[in-house]
Design brief:
- One of its GO terms (molecular function) is 2-methylisocitrate dehydratase activity.
- It comes from Epilithonimonas mollis.
- This protein has 926 residues and is an alpha/beta fold.
- The chain is built from 32 helices and 33 strands.
- The strands form nine sheets. The protein has a seven-stranded mixed β-sheet, with helices on one face. A six-stranded parallel β-sheet has the order 30-31-29-28-32-33.
- α8 packs across α9 and α9 crosses α17.
- The longest helix is centred in the last third of the chain and has 21 residues.
Amino acid sequence: MNIYKDYLKEIDERKEQGLHPKPIDSAELLSAIISQIKDRNNIYRADSLQFFIYNTLPGTTSAAGVKAEFLKEIILGESVVEEITPVFAFELLSHMKGGTSIKVLLDLALGNNVEIAKQAAEVLKTQVFLYEADTDRLKEAFKNENPIANEILESYARADFFTKLPEVPEEIKVVTFIAGEGDISTDLLSPGNQAHSRSDRELHGKCMITPQAQEEIKALQAQHPDKSVMLIAEKGTMGVGSSRMSGVNNVALWTGKQASPYIPFVNIAPIVGGTNGISPIFLTTVDVTGGIGIDLKNWVKKVDENGNAIRNEAGEVVLEEAYSVATGTVLTINTKTKKLYKDGEELIDISKALTPQKMEFIKAGGSYAIVFGKKIQTVASQILGIEIPTVFAPSKEISIEGQGLTAVEKIFNRNAVGLTPGKVLHAGSDVRVEVNIVGSQDTTGLMTAQELESMAATVISPIVDGAYQSGCHTASVWDKKAQANIPKLMKFMNDFGLITARDPKGEYHAMTDVIHKVLNDITIDEWAIIIGGDSHTRMSKGVAFGADSGTVALALATGEASMPIPESVKVTFKGKMKEHMDFRDVVHATQLQMLQQFGGENVFQGRIIEVHIGTLPADQAFTFTDWTAEMKAKASICISEDDTLIESLEIAKGRIQIMIDKGMDNERQVLQGLINKADKRIAEIKSGEKPALTPDANAKYYAEVVVDLDAIVEPMIADPDVNNDDVSKRYTHDTIRDLTYYGGDKKVDLGFVGSCMVHKGDLKIVSQMLKNLERQNGKVEFQAPLVVAAPTYNIIDELKAEGDWELLEKYSGFEFNDAAPKGEARTEYENMMYLERPGCNLCMGNQEKAAKGDTVLATSTRLFQGRVVEDSERKKGESLLASTPVVVLSAIKGRIPSIEEYKEAVEGIDLTTFVPSIKELVTVGH
């Protein structure tokens, strides 16, 4: 009774926030509710019925197990509830999406009561979230000539669960809502500083865009009850930045439709659009929810009579509006003609948004149902001993005779599942691939756990080589929200089979290492496919895709992912780096030179960047691959030389061994298995049996970019350009400026060296610069705070061994203490250096932030509005991105330095340099 009264108290507290009762996932609470339902005179009985029917989470939550068993009692007549008939009990089971509900349905279908068995079979035929234990029961019953089992398997083989669903309407009417002008970051849809509430969908929905925008959306829905609201990024790309299932969930919550009347706050079918399309990660997440993402192309290049682009005084291409999508515009999506219409007039072809595969996702209410549906159809056909009937749209297989393979094409062909035997596929082909490494991070991990529960998964797929749950996004502050959420997450993931940053038993020290840094170490095969719940899942070994929490859950549960093979853009280098330049400057210059070479078109968007950077070990190369997320690339591949790859693998082995020594390996000895695989890979390279991955000489690329290192003469800064008259050009990564542009006098309020874009060499640069400047000036005085956060503990350990950490401690005014982590986020900074705990820190923006309105110079990757720094009434906050030496010097001087000051400060310091391989120089020269 106490637990129920606690729930009522929570309901009252939520009511004050304008919230409904929180969905129930606890077996203890639901058991109390069921007791009250059984007691016909209980004063709470009516409410208890409502909570049981409409407010219990499905899947493998402990509450779902209790609910399924009680429904079984009702069906068997062991319990009688007037309001829940056996027929209604079956309907409720049909909405529970796997887990105990499938076990209960199989118990009933394979039981002795023929009438009940038939009813259970009809429900089972609609279900797809079955696992090996479930199909094994059907297989055994089939062998024993059980007619019901045979009937269910035949239905699965025909894919009745899909074919009997209602068809997608021919016309979908939408009314537009401009969510923002320019690129829309997922931070606008699901702010990082609200990450703690993501698993509470209704509460988290309150943070989407603004309360005013939410009211405007509601008003549009009231005016257009027969239409869906389409959220639009005007003059920009929708959903750039972090991979947020919570962002799509919020859009669906406000603009989509309820997935089931018995599952609270789970909505599907959002419709989103962008002038420049949808970010690749965000589009995948839209597919998860059975939504539609449209590349609107409503602003186009203005051309002269000769078809040449017209440019303004600044040399930028002038855009003109092809058609208006202003808020309140009514449009029609025609799913048959695959066109977008306004008042009966055709606007654009949208066939890419309505491919046969995407139409299946829309019909099924999401991509999971299709993935599991295909799997259950295959298993059923195998048990029956028949060929798999053709039901689903055939995978697109593009094979071009005589054309070589890019690196990503090679990786996809190596890892593909279900290919036509002997067929070699090129870009554009739809492929189902096995996933080697999976990563879950801590602010999306709670949602990944929910997704795993909803698809009734209980253990990691045996085909995954290794999987890791990080603690980096909540590393800065061990506050009440983190204390409530993170231990629960770590226990769930540890039980599921992942290596976890924190030990639920408390036997090893908590590691808050940045997720993609750890994944970069545990990836021990450059032919690997990696899926990670963070947009910066960009490895310097293998090909890695940042993904939403749902896609991560699917990869963990099935060991697979499905996607088209992306096109590639080849990036090579010529010339020589200047001694005073840092490799980060090469990264920014790549972006600048690419945009110059292609007239402002971002050829990286939605494609693989194949970067030929083979002389850089994994840590340094990661600086390039990590940044590619900000250029809206789908992923990146680092082409490495044999010796360099061996060096990187040896470093990775050492770091994995440290994890083993800490006690982080599990019963399956996943970490030891990775070391064994690394040894095998090193032996293959050394013997010449299987050299490092390279593309074929006759591979075909969408574009080729040659970066001229000789042209990089000054440090380069990515500027959010917060005051640009054209709103759509603010907060993009397209504005790259050299140091001289700032005239040596632009004020800097805070410097940040940290997060995933730095490696050990960067931290050594910090210590060497401080030593250098003290020698030159007699002392070091900070005119602005400098926040330093190493990405991993092993970097700190190595710096301690090499003497650099002692130097950093000498100049710092604060050093983190794991024994007493901060309980509250820092709100004020002094002009000194802070040595913060390893992790994301300011880059994430969900815990620590700079003061509102600050100008921040950071090594981070994030310059989005409100991420690192929010606006104040006095001025806009801005986060400019630069190399480590520029950031350090700027914090010391309190301003961006001149080129002369910079050169003097870095004199004699070993910066992160890069020399193109001789092979590539020959190719470029040719």
